[in-house]
Amino acid sequence: MPPSSTWTLHAQLQKDTIDIGDLPLSRVLVIKDANYPWLMLVPRRADTVEIIDLDEVEQGQLMTEINRVSRALKEVTKCDKLNVAALGNMVPQLHIHIVARRKTDAAWPRPVWGVMPPLAHDAAEVQTFISELRRKIWLG
Amino acid sequence: MPPSSTWTLHAQLQKDTIDIGDLPLSRVLVIKDANYPWLMLVPRRADTVEIIDLDEVEQGQLMTEINRVSRALKEVTKCDKLNVAALGNMVPQLHIHIVARRKTDAAWPRPVWGVMPPLAHDAAEVQTFISELRRKIWLG
User: Fold this and answer.
1) A130 belongs to a structural domain
2) How far does Cα B101 stand from its chain's mean position?
3) CATH number at residue A115
4) pLDDT tens per residue, range B2-42
5) What sections of chain A are H helices per DSSP?
6) Residue-range definition of the domain harbouring residue B45
7) For A65, A98, B22, B24, which has the most beta carbons within 10 A of its beta carbon?
Protein backbone atom coordinates (compact mmCIF):
# COMPACT_ATOMS: atom_id res chain seq x y z
CA MET A 1 0.00 0.00 0.00
CA PRO A 2 1.22 3.55 -0.61
CA PRO A 3 1.86 5.49 2.59
CA SER A 4 -0.97 7.80 3.52
CA SER A 5 -1.54 10.14 6.42
CA THR A 6 -5.31 10.39 6.06
CA TRP A 7 -7.67 7.75 7.33
CA THR A 8 -11.11 7.48 5.79
CA LEU A 9 -13.70 4.80 6.41
CA HIS A 10 -13.65 2.10 3.70
CA ALA A 11 -16.52 2.58 1.21
CA GLN A 12 -18.00 -0.86 1.89
CA LEU A 13 -18.05 -0.28 5.65
CA GLN A 14 -19.59 3.15 5.11
CA LYS A 15 -22.36 1.55 3.05
CA ASP A 16 -23.06 -1.22 5.57
CA THR A 17 -23.07 0.78 8.82
CA ILE A 18 -24.43 3.68 10.85
CA ASP A 19 -21.79 5.95 12.45
CA ILE A 20 -22.54 6.42 16.16
CA GLY A 21 -19.40 8.29 17.22
CA ASP A 22 -15.67 8.15 17.88
CA LEU A 23 -13.68 6.78 20.80
CA PRO A 24 -10.04 7.97 21.13
CA LEU A 25 -8.80 5.34 18.65
CA SER A 26 -11.82 3.88 16.89
CA ARG A 27 -14.97 4.86 15.07
CA VAL A 28 -17.98 3.04 16.51
CA LEU A 29 -20.48 1.74 13.95
CA VAL A 30 -23.75 -0.20 13.98
CA ILE A 31 -24.07 -2.79 11.20
CA LYS A 32 -27.27 -2.37 9.20
CA ASP A 33 -28.61 -5.85 9.97
CA ALA A 34 -31.48 -6.35 12.39
CA ASN A 35 -30.81 -10.10 12.62
CA TYR A 36 -28.34 -9.39 15.43
CA PRO A 37 -27.27 -6.39 17.54
CA TRP A 38 -23.97 -5.96 15.71
CA LEU A 39 -21.34 -3.26 16.28
CA MET A 40 -18.00 -2.55 14.68
CA LEU A 41 -14.88 -0.71 15.81
CA VAL A 42 -12.62 0.75 13.13
CA PRO A 43 -9.30 2.19 14.36
CA ARG A 44 -8.78 5.55 12.62
CA ARG A 45 -5.29 4.66 11.39
CA ALA A 46 -4.47 4.76 7.69
CA ASP A 47 -3.11 1.68 5.92
CA THR A 48 -3.92 -0.69 8.78
CA VAL A 49 -5.04 -4.22 7.94
CA GLU A 50 -4.13 -6.37 10.93
CA ILE A 51 -4.17 -5.83 14.71
CA ILE A 52 -0.40 -6.36 14.54
CA ASP A 53 -0.14 -3.30 12.26
CA LEU A 54 -1.08 -1.14 15.28
CA ASP A 55 1.69 -0.17 17.69
CA GLU A 56 1.61 -1.41 21.30
CA VAL A 57 -0.10 1.67 22.70
CA GLU A 58 -2.78 1.53 20.00
CA GLN A 59 -3.28 -2.19 20.64
CA GLY A 60 -3.82 -1.49 24.34
CA GLN A 61 -6.27 1.28 23.49
CA LEU A 62 -8.10 -1.03 21.09
CA MET A 63 -8.55 -3.59 23.89
CA THR A 64 -9.85 -0.82 26.18
CA GLU A 65 -12.36 0.19 23.53
CA ILE A 66 -13.38 -3.44 22.82
CA ASN A 67 -14.00 -3.80 26.56
CA ARG A 68 -16.08 -0.65 26.84
CA VAL A 69 -18.19 -1.30 23.76
CA SER A 70 -18.66 -4.99 24.62
CA ARG A 71 -19.88 -4.14 28.13
CA ALA A 72 -22.30 -1.53 26.78
CA LEU A 73 -23.63 -3.94 24.14
CA LYS A 74 -24.12 -6.69 26.72
CA GLU A 75 -25.91 -4.33 29.13
CA VAL A 76 -28.21 -2.97 26.45
CA THR A 77 -29.09 -6.32 24.86
CA LYS A 78 -28.82 -8.77 27.81
CA CYS A 79 -27.35 -11.14 25.22
CA ASP A 80 -26.28 -14.74 25.89
CA LYS A 81 -22.81 -14.41 24.33
CA LEU A 82 -20.53 -11.85 22.76
CA ASN A 83 -18.65 -12.64 19.55
CA VAL A 84 -15.56 -10.47 19.01
CA ALA A 85 -13.63 -10.88 15.77
CA ALA A 86 -11.10 -9.24 13.44
CA LEU A 87 -11.45 -11.15 10.16
CA GLY A 88 -11.09 -8.78 7.20
CA ASN A 89 -11.10 -11.37 4.43
CA MET A 90 -13.47 -9.23 2.33
CA VAL A 91 -12.70 -5.64 3.43
CA PRO A 92 -9.00 -5.12 4.13
CA GLN A 93 -9.32 -2.04 6.39
CA LEU A 94 -8.87 -3.24 10.00
CA HIS A 95 -12.27 -3.56 11.67
CA ILE A 96 -13.42 -5.47 14.74
CA HIS A 97 -16.87 -7.03 14.88
CA ILE A 98 -18.65 -7.10 18.26
CA VAL A 99 -21.86 -9.10 17.95
CA ALA A 100 -24.49 -9.75 20.63
CA ARG A 101 -25.62 -13.35 20.23
CA ARG A 102 -28.74 -15.04 21.52
CA LYS A 103 -29.35 -18.76 21.64
CA THR A 104 -32.52 -18.03 19.69
CA ASP A 105 -30.93 -15.98 16.88
CA ALA A 106 -31.01 -17.11 13.26
CA ALA A 107 -27.38 -18.28 13.09
CA TRP A 108 -26.83 -19.71 16.59
CA PRO A 109 -24.49 -21.47 17.37
CA ARG A 110 -22.73 -20.71 14.09
CA PRO A 111 -20.82 -17.44 13.56
CA VAL A 112 -23.01 -14.76 11.94
CA TRP A 113 -21.04 -14.15 8.75
CA GLY A 114 -22.75 -15.25 5.56
CA VAL A 115 -25.64 -17.05 7.25
CA MET A 116 -28.58 -14.67 6.85
CA PRO A 117 -29.20 -11.90 4.32
CA PRO A 118 -29.13 -8.51 6.11
CA LEU A 119 -32.50 -7.54 7.57
CA ALA A 120 -33.50 -3.86 7.51
CA HIS A 121 -33.82 -2.17 10.91
CA ASP A 122 -37.02 -0.63 12.16
CA ALA A 123 -36.07 3.05 12.18
CA ALA A 124 -37.41 3.82 15.65
CA GLU A 125 -35.94 0.66 17.20
CA VAL A 126 -32.46 1.29 15.86
CA GLN A 127 -32.55 4.89 17.11
CA THR A 128 -33.48 3.69 20.61
CA PHE A 129 -30.69 1.09 20.45
CA ILE A 130 -28.17 3.74 19.37
CA SER A 131 -29.27 6.18 22.08
CA GLU A 132 -28.89 3.55 24.79
CA LEU A 133 -25.52 2.47 23.45
CA ARG A 134 -24.18 6.01 23.19
CA ARG A 135 -25.15 6.64 26.80
CA LYS A 136 -23.49 3.42 28.03
CA ILE A 137 -20.33 3.91 25.98
CA TRP A 138 -20.23 7.58 27.04
CA LEU A 139 -20.14 8.76 23.47
CA GLY A 140 -20.87 12.47 23.21
CA MET B 1 -21.12 -20.85 37.49
CA PRO B 2 -19.86 -21.88 40.93
CA PRO B 3 -16.72 -20.02 41.96
CA SER B 4 -13.56 -22.03 41.41
CA SER B 5 -9.91 -21.30 41.99
CA THR B 6 -8.54 -23.95 39.65
CA TRP B 7 -8.36 -23.51 35.90
CA THR B 8 -8.28 -26.58 33.71
CA LEU B 9 -8.51 -26.70 29.93
CA HIS B 10 -12.05 -27.51 28.73
CA ALA B 11 -12.36 -31.18 27.68
CA GLN B 12 -13.44 -30.29 24.12
CA LEU B 13 -10.48 -27.95 23.63
CA GLN B 14 -8.15 -30.60 25.06
CA LYS B 15 -9.49 -33.10 22.52
CA ASP B 16 -9.17 -30.73 19.55
CA THR B 17 -5.71 -29.26 20.19
CA ILE B 18 -2.00 -29.83 20.78
CA ASP B 19 -0.53 -27.98 23.78
CA ILE B 20 2.60 -26.06 22.74
CA GLY B 21 3.27 -24.12 25.95
CA ASP B 22 2.21 -21.32 28.27
CA LEU B 23 2.60 -17.55 28.01
CA PRO B 24 2.16 -15.55 31.25
CA LEU B 25 -1.65 -15.48 30.87
CA SER B 26 -2.59 -17.99 28.19
CA ARG B 27 -2.02 -21.56 27.13
CA VAL B 28 -0.99 -21.72 23.46
CA LEU B 29 -2.59 -24.50 21.44
CA VAL B 30 -2.51 -25.76 17.85
CA ILE B 31 -5.89 -26.88 16.49
CA LYS B 32 -5.78 -30.39 15.04
CA ASP B 33 -6.86 -29.34 11.55
CA ALA B 34 -4.40 -29.25 8.68
CA ASN B 35 -6.80 -27.23 6.49
CA TYR B 36 -5.39 -24.05 8.03
CA PRO B 37 -2.51 -23.11 10.35
CA TRP B 38 -4.76 -22.49 13.34
CA LEU B 39 -3.74 -21.51 16.87
CA MET B 40 -5.68 -20.82 20.03
CA LEU B 41 -4.98 -18.83 23.17
CA VAL B 42 -6.80 -19.86 26.35
CA PRO B 43 -6.34 -17.53 29.34
CA ARG B 44 -5.67 -19.69 32.40
CA ARG B 45 -8.41 -18.07 34.47
CA ALA B 46 -11.20 -20.15 35.96
CA ASP B 47 -14.86 -19.36 35.19
CA THR B 48 -14.03 -16.96 32.35
CA VAL B 49 -16.34 -16.86 29.34
CA GLU B 50 -15.95 -13.41 27.80
CA ILE B 51 -13.01 -11.05 27.26
CA ILE B 52 -14.90 -8.63 29.55
CA ASP B 53 -14.68 -11.22 32.35
CA LEU B 54 -10.92 -10.55 32.49
CA ASP B 55 -9.73 -7.56 34.51
CA GLU B 56 -7.97 -4.65 32.79
CA VAL B 57 -4.46 -5.93 33.40
CA GLU B 58 -5.38 -9.38 32.07
CA GLN B 59 -7.03 -7.82 29.01
CA GLY B 60 -3.84 -5.87 28.29
CA GLN B 61 -1.78 -9.02 28.70
CA LEU B 62 -4.16 -10.90 26.40
CA MET B 63 -3.63 -8.28 23.69
CA THR B 64 0.15 -8.56 24.18
CA GLU B 65 -0.07 -12.33 23.75
CA ILE B 66 -2.40 -12.05 20.72
CA ASN B 67 0.18 -9.71 19.17
CA ARG B 68 3.11 -12.01 19.86
CA VAL B 69 1.40 -15.18 18.67
CA SER B 70 -0.09 -13.45 15.60
CA ARG B 71 3.33 -12.12 14.55
CA ALA B 72 4.92 -15.54 14.98
CA LEU B 73 2.15 -17.24 13.03
CA LYS B 74 2.42 -14.73 10.19
CA GLU B 75 6.22 -15.05 10.03
CA VAL B 76 6.10 -18.85 10.01
CA THR B 77 3.28 -19.20 7.47
CA LYS B 78 3.70 -16.08 5.29
CA CYS B 79 -0.11 -16.03 5.26
CA ASP B 80 -2.28 -13.53 3.35
CA LYS B 81 -4.48 -12.58 6.33
CA LEU B 82 -4.87 -13.25 10.03
CA ASN B 83 -8.28 -14.00 11.50
CA VAL B 84 -8.51 -13.31 15.26
CA ALA B 85 -11.74 -14.20 17.05
CA ALA B 86 -13.30 -14.87 20.45
CA LEU B 87 -16.60 -16.62 19.66
CA GLY B 88 -17.32 -19.36 22.21
CA ASN B 89 -20.81 -20.27 21.07
CA MET B 90 -20.04 -23.99 21.37
CA VAL B 91 -17.37 -24.13 24.12
CA PRO B 92 -17.99 -21.57 26.87
CA GLN B 93 -14.42 -21.39 28.25
CA LEU B 94 -12.85 -18.18 26.90
CA HIS B 95 -10.58 -19.00 23.96
CA ILE B 96 -9.20 -16.86 21.15
CA HIS B 97 -8.74 -18.28 17.67
CA ILE B 98 -5.76 -17.02 15.63
CA VAL B 99 -5.96 -18.44 12.11
CA ALA B 100 -3.51 -17.96 9.23
CA ARG B 101 -5.57 -17.56 6.08
CA ARG B 102 -4.52 -17.95 2.47
CA LYS B 103 -6.49 -16.80 -0.53
CA THR B 104 -6.16 -20.38 -1.77
CA ASP B 105 -7.45 -22.11 1.38
CA ALA B 106 -10.60 -24.22 1.38
CA ALA B 107 -12.84 -21.65 3.11
CA TRP B 108 -11.51 -18.36 1.69
CA PRO B 109 -12.96 -15.69 1.92
CA ARG B 110 -15.42 -17.16 4.42
CA PRO B 111 -14.52 -17.62 8.09
CA VAL B 112 -13.15 -21.10 8.81
CA TRP B 113 -15.72 -22.33 11.32
CA GLY B 114 -17.93 -25.16 10.12
CA VAL B 115 -16.77 -25.07 6.50
CA MET B 116 -14.44 -28.08 6.22
CA PRO B 117 -14.24 -31.26 8.27
CA PRO B 118 -10.95 -31.29 10.24
CA LEU B 119 -8.05 -32.73 8.26
CA ALA B 120 -5.44 -34.81 10.12
CA HIS B 121 -1.95 -33.30 10.29
CA ASP B 122 1.09 -35.01 8.86
CA ALA B 123 3.00 -35.82 12.05
CA ALA B 124 6.38 -34.56 10.86
CA GLU B 125 4.94 -31.38 9.34
CA VAL B 126 3.06 -30.39 12.47
CA GLN B 127 6.17 -30.98 14.59
CA THR B 128 8.19 -28.68 12.31
CA PHE B 129 5.42 -26.07 12.47
CA ILE B 130 5.34 -26.27 16.28
CA SER B 131 9.13 -26.02 16.58
CA GLU B 132 9.23 -22.91 14.40
CA LEU B 133 6.34 -21.34 16.29
CA ARG B 134 7.82 -22.07 19.70
CA ARG B 135 11.06 -20.43 18.65
CA LYS B 136 9.30 -17.32 17.29
CA ILE B 137 6.97 -16.97 20.28
CA TRP B 138 9.94 -17.60 22.61
CA LEU B 139 8.17 -20.42 24.33
CA GLY B 140 10.70 -22.33 26.49
Assistant:
1) yes
2) 14
3) 3.30.428.10
4) 555 799 999 999 999 999 999 999 999 999 999 999 999 99
5) 11-16, 56-77, 123-137
6) 11-137
7) A98
